[in-house]
Sequence to fold (251 residues):
Amino acid sequence: MRKNIVAGNWKMNTTLQEGVALANEIKEALNGVETKCDVVIATPFTHLVSVVAAVEGTSIGVGAENCADKTEGAFTGEVSAKMVASTGAQYVILGHSERRAYYHETPEVLKEKVLLALENNLTPIFCVGEVLAEREAGEHFNVVAAQVKESLFNLTADEFSKIVIAYEPVWAIGTGKTATADQAQEIHAFIRQTIAEKYGNEVADNTSILYGGSCKPSNAGELFAKPDVDGGLIGGAALKADSFLGIITAF
Ligand code: PEP
Fold:
């Protein structure tokens, strides 16, 4: 059966020292707490080695927020999936709307990144989601289905079964506006149905689909209670141990 997951996305926040202190706070906050979900923290590349060391011996997973679409070589400033894996990290966020919008990541580029992540035994947390104009035009189902199909439907069923999806309506990210639990359920069920049509019910039922977009302790319980919402990808509220813990314990 699929896993519940709460993953923090730190984005471009915290110095190395602040990040390690935050990881330690999260570790301490979780000490002795029985969680009903896996916990992941995704950090800037510079923090990975130290955060992996900070959470060693716990069940907290660590991830990067991106990786390159190339294996190695003359790509100044890029960080490969193999490099990410070599830090001890186990996850990588791919296709975040900020990467798509500000760094022009295309479905084709994301397809390469997903393959390289899988080749290096990283679990991709693959983000999809519509912008406000698309939702208002009733296009959100088409947009999200296309994002899933264009970057992931080249995978074998075995490869696809290693993917975690995060549905993140762009209009809800960092805006304080959350999708209602019913809106989240509706589109999560649609994503699962889209996966089932390609890979069958078993793969679809085993795929964790997280919600992201202004998730906080006060709304996480209602979102996570929905049958197709398997946890959250958390931005702002993951930068404070107490609010992150409040979301983790909302199951
Ligand atoms: C995100 O960027 O993945 C996110 C969900 O951000 P926030 O929780 O701040 O809306």
